[in-house]
Amino acid sequence: MVIDTLKFDAEEIAAAIAEWAGIESPSTDPAAVNRMMDRAEKTMTAMGAGIERTPGRDGFGDVLKACFDFDHPAGTPGILILGHLDTVHLAGTLADELPVRRDGDLLFGPGVLDMKGGMYLACHAVEKLLAAGGRLNLPLTFMFIPDEEIGSPSTRALIEEAARASKYVLVPEPGREAHFVTGRHAFLRYKIHAHGKPAHAGHAVGVGRSAISVMARLIAEIEGYSDVAREITYRVGNIQGGTFVNVIPATCHAEVLCVAPSEAAFAEIQDRMAAITSPDPDVRVEVEAGPVRPLFQAHDGTMELLGVAQRVARDVGLDLDHGQFGGGSDGNFTGALGVPTLDGLGVVGNGVHTKQEHLLVSSLVPRAKLFAGLVAALSERNA
User: Fold this and answer.
1) Torsions phi, psi of 280, nearest 5?
2) CA torsion, ordered 112, 113, 116, 121, to nearest 10 deg
3) The domain containing residue 259 runs over which residues?
């Protein structure tokens, strides 16, 4: 295989990932995300890709596509490498709780694992592969997404359009030490709004009705629906309400993330959330459905793709099983469409969505070889 001739250097890859992680890009800051898109565009342009940049909408950053056509006829289905450059870490994280730093085999930083590390690794692997072989027998497109961490509300249609035009989708989300990801649980997002009645909070008896008190009761109820044994979860992750401590709060808002491992669980969640009512008749409650990541379950095309990936993995010294897992990705969209999709192809580490996010530098060379080898094998299958 051509992969045997490729030379990868873990320190070189780690240094580049550290540079990408040093550009803060929280999902809700489009200017920051676009600075990260600028950096990725520079990388892809240097590799010789054709660039297509779609301006962001609805308050989010741009979408970057980098295409290698290799003189194939327009419309030829190829390989789509799909991932995001936004993070859950707010601006200022670098200077405070999560600076980019190295501690032995651990490289810390916002996005080093989820998923700037994986997207850079994919870029680097393809760059090495093209330098060795010059072209592929399939077109190849990178697609960099700006809003994945909040459900890809502005980009889902673009992702699905690109997937439908592709033969394979490869997703370098964080890798698991022992598994490929051949399926993902569905994710459902909701916003709960409570509307009470303001009054002076210092009065023992009054006309006020606390929206926060009602929301607190609802949160306990909603999270109580979780069934961890069945991998069905309801989590409230963001709450806003009130103004001054001496004013009974008239409004309160909460965001809920629900995870469903099956179609039955998906329907169960929808029914439960639609049935929520206020425990206080004087406080009005609204349930607003938000972005959904559909259920991605392994199908014949994905299993065939998995077989190719497992053969490549063994060739580079990795023994990887597969499975369906939580932790949504844009692969939910492509897999749910029936397009052969393999996820979890990125770097290995721990601490996703925490201030301990890190990758294992020792994972970089094996994972780069795996990614390059998989792309090469898919190209060879289409010779």
Assistant:
1) -125, 115
2) 100
3) 186-293
